[in-house]
Design a protein that fits this description.
Number of strands: 4
Radius of gyration: 14 Å
Strand order of the largest sheet: 1-4
Strand content: 15-25%
Structural class: mainly beta
Helix content: under 10%
Number of helices: 1
Order of helices and strands: EHEEE
């Protein structure tokens, strides 16, 4: 899980899949630059049918939580951009 804010840049390495979630209240504006030779890996997402994490809001605070419906072989890592 990668948490980013306005102006941050995030690089998705080859052989990874990703899902973008806008946890803010403003419109998300983003651009993707994709290398011609890049390959993404979405098979685990297709098999499980859900993302490994999602955003909830409790008492006015947003939290990223692990989706219990997603059976992961590796633990979720929470990184900053």
């Amino acid at each position: 899980m990668m948490e980013a804010n306005a102006g941050d840049k995030v690089c998705i390495p080859p052989d990874y899949g990703h899902i973008t979630v806008n946890a803010g209240s403003e419109n998300l504006v983003m651009a993707n630059w994709v290398s011609e030779g890049c390959s993404s890996f979405y098979e685990p997402i297709k098999v499980v049918g859900v993302a490994s994490c999602f955003v909830i809001e409790e008492d006015g605070k947003k939290q990223f939580v692990v989706n219990y419906k997603c059976k992961l072989s590796n633990p979720v890592r929470h990184l900053k951009a």
